[in-house]
Design brief:
The structure holds two protein chains of two kinds. By secondary structure, chain A is mainly α. Chain A has one domain: Orthogonal Bundle (Cytochrome Bc1 Complex, Chain D, domain 2). Helices cover 35% and strands 8% of the residues of chain A. In chain B, helix 7 crosses helix 13. Classes of the chains: A mainly alpha, B mainly alpha. At the A-B interface, helix 1 of A face helix 2, helix 3, helix 6, helix 7 and helix 8 of B.
């Protein structure tokens, strides 16, 4: 029986060690991280609130993480910065309000850590989410048309609508699209994704 | 295995152990195969969506970002969880030479587990994923997967305490490890991530500590336990070296735990966390080489039996792929390797070589060996087993080769900023088609197994009493050499 106890205890200790080392210790190290002051009395990073908070939930519900990462690797390691995915590497402080984290492990599509800086246009995001082929021909991203109202050609454009380009394939009868609430939240979140603020620790 | 019983008593104890676990184990394994089919279908749909994004594009519930996590969760928890639990219960009862206790509780537990799986899958499809990779199921659904484990752990320790054998066989160390590790893993990960005890990027570390370990500390030990049992059993020879087994077990236990952070290489984390993951992964060479040598040396001189025994064929395929995919995994953890292959299809290829090349074949081998003994009836068709084997082997090889090659190329192109992103996407498309083809082959194999398994459960009439082997004429020499001394009457 003492051998059994030794076996069970040994097995338990191996996992207890890694919980301590990889879960508890890093958490201690990062708990002290606070936002830093930006110009105009603003802080970076900011809490998510309102539409961008709900948009983050939509990002999770649609499972964007399975194709898109949100982390820029440092200069000299990969080509993230040279591809224009960010102007600096990502650091732990960028993520202190990210719950749950959406760092991601796959780049079937490009990195989104600073998509808001790269594509600040609401119209671009609307068209891209409605049908990626309109803005990025050859893309394999699914169409999220269900996040939009379609307005038939010839109907008057409602407020906040985005005109489909005439060349848009497969949508011959659609003149305008209007993001539904879920779509507009998601766009608000994507536009907010921006790590361009020069945090001091990211400059090294 | 020395025992204090004589041979006849030993065989009787084994038969009693088998008949006591019949209903529980065939329930766990049967439902495991249903989840494997669901996982394979979900994988196929995900795969098709990547080369043909319009495929089933009208259904929000089946959008790539939902069906893809369902694929993995159904594979690791539904198939992996139930297949490993069935293996654990059957093998522990047999090796301890005791009857399976708490049968009603275990059936109830298996039912709760299956309901939890169903709830989890529907939640993710409906958009209620937690957003944490590998822990997508809502906490309440995940709880339904953990509760049965309490019963399984108690049953495992009870059998161990009642065991009639003096010695503990190497498979039992691994089974003990599975029962201790899995609950600790899930509970710590849920507490830290979904209950928010851990913040920001520390969450990512906890996430990949869990994500890597659910494979390494749950599926892997169950697979190795099966290999350690089946290979010597079928060829009728003892394991090559006790000391290598011991070394392999403890180094695996110590080092695998730390390997997970290589999933975050290059990420916004302090270098030490990644370095630990790289070191852990490199140290994994020790158990992998040790276990590989041990299994290989046991097999030496008996490779001709691969022609006849289905169990052995799957078991040897699994053991060999354990070595291959673990070598690949360790090398993959290196920073220079990750600079290219991280974020690409290479990782996906690797996961499939591990799960479908190593873990799944060992679970299949376990079922091929144990089911006739549980049901006291032979497999109805050797041809279906042959189809299953070749589909598994060819499907996995094609999948691994296509994805790993495409992944390296994809990573190299991604690291060259002069190449537009969409050009990389179009480069991968032919390989994504190959993956769909590989998925179809794997599905065909799964269906063949499902038919054979279903026929056995439904007591499909078989006219022969001797084991179903690959050779056309029933070869008694091979049969005797394979050590199947407890052939059903």
């Amino acid at each position: 029986m003492s051998r059994t106890l030794f076996l069970a205890l040994g097995i338990f200790l191996t996992i207890a060690a890694s919980v301590t080392g990889l879960v508890i210790l890093p958490n201690w190290q990062f708990q002290a991280l606070k936002p830093v002051a930006k110009s105009g009395g603003l802080l970076y990073p900011e809490q998510y609130f309102g539409d961008n908070k709900r948009g983050r939930e939509e990002y999770i519900a649609q499972g964007c993480i399975y194709c898109h990462s949100q982390q820029v690797r440092m200069k000299g390691y990969g080509a993230d910065i040279r591809r224009g995915w960010g102007n600096r590497r990502s650091v732990p402080r960028d993520y202190i309000f990210d719950f749950p984290h959406q760092l991601g492990t796959m780049r079937t599509g490009p990195d989104l850590a600073s998509i808001g800086a790269r594509q600040p246009s609401r119209d671009w995001h609307s068209l891209h989410l409605y049908d990626p082929q309109i803005t990025s021909p050859g893309s394999i991203m699914p169409s999220f048309y269900y996040l939009f109202e379609e307005v038939k050609k010839g109907m008057p454009p409602p407020e906040g609508s985005v005109k489909l380009p005439d060349a848009a394939k497969n949508h011959a009868d659609v003149g305008y699209i209007v993001p539904k609430e879920r779509g507009s939240n998601l766009i608000a979140y994507l536009k907010r994704l921006n790590q361009s603020f020069p945090l001091p620790e990211a400059q090294q | 295995m020395t025992t204090n019983l004589n041979q006849a008593d030993e065989i009787r104890a084994r038969i009693e152990a088998d008949s006591s676990s019949r209903i529980v184990v065939s329930f766990y394994w049967g439902t495991a195969l249903i989840w494997l089919t669901i996982a394979t279908l979900a994988g196929l749909i995900s795969s098709a969506k990547l080369h043909s994004p319009g495929f089933l594009g009208d259904i929000e519930w089946l959008t790539f970002g939902r069906i893809r996590p369902v694929h993995w969760d159904a594979a690791i928890y539904g198939f992996g969880g139930l297949a490993a639990s069935g293996t654990l219960l059957w093998l522990q009862a047999r090796l301890c030479q005791v009857q399976l206790p708490f049968k009603h509780w275990l059936i109830a537990g298996g039912t709760i587990f299956n309901l939890g799986m169903l709830c989890g899958v529907v939640s993710v499809l409906a958009g209620y994923s937690t957003g944490v990779e590998t822990l997508e199921f809502p906490v309440w659904a995940m709880t339904m997967l953990v509760i049965p484990y309490v019963i399984i752990v108690v049953a495992n320790f009870t059998m161990y305490a009642r065991k009639k054998t003096k010695h503990t066989y190497v498979s039992q160390w691994y089974l003990m490890a599975v029962t201790v590790w899995f609950p600790v893993l899930v509970l710590s990960a849920e507490a830290c991530i979904n209950f928010g005890a851990v913040d920001g990027v520390a969450q990512a570390i906890a996430n990949w500590w869990y994500g890597h370990n659910v494979v390494g500390l749950f599926a892997t030990p169950a697979g190795i336990a099966a290999a350690y049992y089946l290979i010597p059993k079928v060829i009728g020879k003892p394991i090559h070296s006790y000391h290598l087994s011991l070394l392999g077990f403890w180094t695996n236990a110590i080092f695998y735990n730390w390997a997970g952070t290589h999933h975050l290489t290059g990420g916004p984390l302090p270098a030490w966390t990644i370095t630990i993951g790289v070191v852990g992964s490199m140290m994994m060479f020790i158990p992998v080489i040790t276990i590989g040598i041990n299994h290989h040396m046991t097999m030496v001189g008996s490779f001709h039996l691969l022609r006849t025994s289905p169990t052995l064929r799957f078991a040897v395929m699994g053991s060999m792929m354990y070595t291959v995919s673990s070598f690949q995994g360790s090398l993959e953890a290196l920073r220079s390797h990750q600079e290219v292959t991280h974020f690409t299809h290479y990782t996906i290829g690797h996961v499939h070589l591990g799960m479908y090349g190593f873990f799944a074949p060992l679970m299949f081998a376990m079922m091929y060996y144990a089911m006739p003994r549980l049901m006291r009836q032979e497999w109805s068709s050797a041809r279906l087993i042959r189809i299953h084997f070749w589909c598994t082997l060819i499907g996995t090889a094609l999948y691994g080769a296509a994805m790993c090659f495409a992944g390296v190329k994809q990573g190299l192109m991604m690291n060259d900023p002069a190449i537009p992103f969409l050009k990389i996407v179009s480069f991968t498309i032919p390989f994504l088609w190959l993956r769909t083809l590989a998925g179809l082959i794997l599905l065909a194999g799964t269906v063949a197994f499902l038919i054979n398994f279903g026929r056995m459960l439904m007591r499909y009439k078989v006219t022969f009493a001797d084991p179903t082997l690959f050779t056309t004429e029933r070869n008694w020499d091979a049969l005797l050499a394979s050590g199947k001394e407890e052939k059903p009457a």
